[in-house]
Design brief:
It is a single chain. By secondary structure, the protein is an all-alpha fold. The chain contains nine helices and no strands.
């Protein structure tokens, strides 16, 4: 009996393994996808127009250069962003969190302005251009609001705006998933002809990529910060 009692006491006092956070799996998926698209954009660091993945406007001499700047800064923000949402990282390494936050915001500010220029001179068609213009404007606006919130010391509002902003940054991932899936379907049904940017799939990808992530961000914000609203 004493042996059994001692064993029970030892079991009760033994350190327990912390359960895996429910959010770690989605975070890993998000991070892996972000890394994949960042690697996809790495050829732009050569600033060689031959690596362009979109048709270039011959009437806009700076089209490729500005688009490459957008790809590089956007890719950097996409890569840095996930680590800013890790609670343990923010608590243990606050200085690194602030430095990475500054890098992220600078990249988004530059990337959104470059995206706006690229949208105006792109050859993707009017509907796709409008979608990209809206995305660029909201992308810049949301990071500006996040910056203003943290400057005022409103941490919760800063986090809310950063969630919205990274949702827009992550649109780069959703756009390509939707586009590649759509192109695969067109190829399978023998309906794919010419450049992917001239297909209805591309136009729908442009709009779906940022509207879907923004809707998800608003749902997530309500669940995380305002649970009473979602009941």
């Amino acid at each position: 009996m004493n042996t059994t009692h001692e064993a029970q006491e030892l079991a009760s006092t033994a350190p327990r393994k912390k359960p895996i956070s429910r959010g770690i799996i989605p975070w890993i998926i998000m991070t892996v996808l972000a890394i994949g698209i960042t690697i996809y954009a790495t050829p732009y660091i050569t600033f060689n127009p031959a690596v362009s993945r979109i048709p270039l406007n011959p009437a806009a001499a700076w089209h490729f250069t500005i688009h490459a700047i957008h790809a590089i800064t956007g890719g950097t923000a996409l890569l840095v962003g996930p680590f800013q949402f890790l609670n343990r990282f923010r608590v243990r390494y606050p200085a690194a969190h602030r430095v990475m936050g500054r890098i992220y915001m600078i990249c988004v500010a530059i990337g959104s302005l470059a995206a706006l220029y690229s949208a105006f001179v792109s050859l993707d068609g009017f509907v796709a251009q409008v979608g990209f213009v809206f995305l660029a404007i909201i992308w810049f606006y949301s990071v500006l609001q996040a910056y203003r919130a943290i400057r005022r010391g409103n941490i919760q509002l800063h986090r809310i705006w950063m969630i919205r902003n990274y949702a827009l940054t992550f649109a780069a991932v959703i756009l390509r998933i939707w586009l590649f899936s759509g192109i695969a379907y067109l190829v399978a049904t023998h309906n794919y002809h010419g450049s992917p940017t001239y297909t209805p799939v591309y136009v729908s990808a442009v709009w779906f990529s940022w509207t879907s992530t923004l809707i998800f961000a608003e749902w997530f914000i309500n669940q995380r910060f305002f649970p009473s609203r979602s009941r």
